[in-house]
């Protein structure tokens, strides 16, 4: 309501002259301050609860409600009342006031989770915020920021998934000891260990290369990205180990 009132006051201010224009300008300034105070209060009420991430690691209810408010306010700024130069000022200010504390609250909640769960949670929060802002103009800087946040979290999640896969396959030790002497003579790197790892890898690929840490990502695009980066990293590990096994210096008979 305050948002619509401010836009109307600005609109008629720009059409008026003399004392009426000055009066409308004062009222528009007052409405602007009241709107800012109302948003600050509303954000505080939602975010001060210290909401824990939901079990599915999706965006919390507080963020969903704030994004719904942002969507409603941006939908009102369709250009009929506020000209583009004014919207270019209003939209970033609105997003800074609402999304900045909301993302800080999400990051605080994520810090209480494991590395993989925290990355999944923040990627889901960023994805929801990005999809909410995408249809609206003057949101490009925030869209870039949210995309960067999501990609960073996907990178962290991929690292966690890679480590989990290497441990599952029994390849953590061989990868860690690469280049530290004849590999075949080092603990956990003998022929039997590598053959067992190869069999596990074959079964993993036969099962469709499941990625447990990516199951709770809300975005199918994010799941595809995680799958691609993790598979690429695993292929790189395989290439390194294949070269090491065929290097006579590592002491493997009949590679």
UniProtKB/TrEMBL annotation:
Name of the protein in its database record: Putative golgi transport complex
Matches recorded under Pfam families: COG6_C (PF20653)
Gene Ontology terms: biological process: intra-Golgi vesicle-mediated transport
**Which ranges carry the Conserved Oligomeric Golgi complex subunit 6 C-terminal domain?**
2-254
UniProt organism field: Ixodes ricinus
**InterPro entries of this UniProt entry?**
COG6, COG6_C
Question: What domain of life?
Answer: Eukaryota
Assigned GO CC terms: Golgi transport complex
């Amino acid at each position: 309501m305050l948002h619509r009132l401010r836009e109307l006051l600005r609109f008629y201010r720009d059409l008026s002259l003399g004392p009426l224009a000055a009066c409308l300008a004062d009222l528009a300034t007052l409405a602007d301050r009241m709107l800012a105070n109302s948003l600050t209060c509303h954000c505080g009420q939602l975010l001060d609860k210290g909401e824990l991430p939901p079990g599915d690691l999706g965006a919390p209810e507080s963020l969903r409600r704030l994004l719904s408010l942002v969507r409603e306010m941006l939908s009102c700024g369709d250009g009929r009342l506020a000209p583009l130069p004014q919207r270019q000022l209003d939209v970033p200010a609105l997003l800074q006031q609402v999304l900045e504390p909301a993302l800080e609250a999400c990051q605080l909640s994520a810090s209480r989770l494991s590395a993989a769960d925290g990355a999944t949670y923040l990627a889901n929060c960023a994805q929801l915020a990005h999809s909410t802002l995408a249809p609206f103009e003057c949101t490009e800087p925030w869209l870039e920021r949210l995309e960067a946040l999501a990609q960073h979290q996907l990178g962290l999640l991929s690292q966690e998934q890679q480590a989990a896969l290497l441990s599952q396959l029994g390849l953590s030790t061989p990868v860690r000891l690469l280049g530290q002497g004849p590999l075949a003579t080092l603990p956990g790197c003998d022929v039997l260990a590598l053959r067992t790892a190869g069999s596990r890898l074959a079964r993993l690929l036969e099962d469709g290369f499941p990625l447990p840490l990516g199951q709770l990502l809300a975005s199918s695009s994010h799941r595809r990205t995680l799958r691609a980066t993790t598979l690429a990293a695993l292929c790189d590990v395989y290439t390194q180990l294949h070269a090491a096994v065929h290097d006579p210096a590592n002491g493997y008979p009949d590679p």
